[in-house]
Design goal:
It contains six helices and eleven strands. With 239 residues, it is of the alpha/beta class. The chain is globular and about 55 Å long. This is 3-oxoacid CoA-transferase subunit A.
Length: 239
């Protein structure tokens, strides 16, 4: 029965899966849709020399930043460094290998990995450092650079709801990279806010079919973080 996919917590779900030197895809964009409990489980496991494929590397004190701060990450394949001072410092000092990839190209490389497409061509990055060392060809009079797929030993994703079969539904922008990454890992572990009974989902609601998901955990709690809290005084408010 599908209950075999449901694990007690992150530590149990990662047992027998995590190993030194592995490649991990981690969903999320900024502070939205991060598999934070699975990341915390990787921190506790102590696995090291990791290659992480993710849009960014968390934020100060949160998410993948914790693995970076604990010297568990050897290489990042990302599109955004952002305000992560630790990420920037380690890259600039040569202590962290970085493969910087345009955001759309990163998404397509992950999608290609899940779809079994080893390479594709894109105009993004032509004539820049992004294209260095990569084949460039002409199609209909325009130059295109060849990019290769991305796949991983493990994909960790965050969804809103799952059923016992592993069918997943994401909530709004927390979907981001998660659905593509769920298809491109040899093993995919999903953490969710709620596990619902089998048969709850209309098939048309499902964003990631359960065939891609090997293990599920229900996160104990989630804090809705805001990266930049910006406020203004309401018009007409008393001074």
């Amino acid at each position: 029965m599908s209950e075999r996919k449901i694990f007690k917590d992150a530590d149990e779900a990662l047992a027998g899966i995590a190993f030194d030197g592995m490649t991990i895809m981690s969903g999320g964009f900024g502070l939205s849709g991060n598999p934070e409990h699975l990341i915390a489980g990787l921190l506790r496991s102590g696995v090291k020399d990791l290659t992480i494929i993710s849009n960014n590397c968390g934020a100060d004190g949160f998410g993948l930043w914790t693995l970076l701060n604990n010297s568990q990450i050897r290489k990042m394949i990302s599109s955004y460094i952002g305000e992560n001072k630790l990420f920037a410092e380690l890259c600039l000092t040569g202590k962290l290998e970085l493969e910087l990839t345009p955001q759309g190209t990163l998404a397509e490389r992950v999608r290609a990995g899940g779809a079994g497409i080893p390479a594709f061509y894109t105009r993004t990055g032509v004539g820049t450092v992004v294209a260095e060392g990569k084949p460039v060809e002409t199609f209909e009079g325009a130059l295109y650079v060849r990019e290769t797929w991305l796949r991983a030993d493990l994909a960790i994703v965050k969804a809103w709801k799952a059923d016992p079969e592993g069918n997943l539904i994401y909530r709004k922008t927390a979907r981001n990279f998660n659905p593509d990454m769920a298809t491109a890992g040899k093993v995919t572990i999903a953490e969710v806010e709620e596990i619902v009974p089998a048969g709850t989902f209309d098939p048309d609601q499902v964003h990631t079919p359960g065939i891609y998901v090997n293990r599920i955990i229900q996160g104990p709690s989630y804090e809705k973080r805001i990266e930049f809290r910006t406020t203004r005084e309401r018009e007409g408010a008393a001074g």
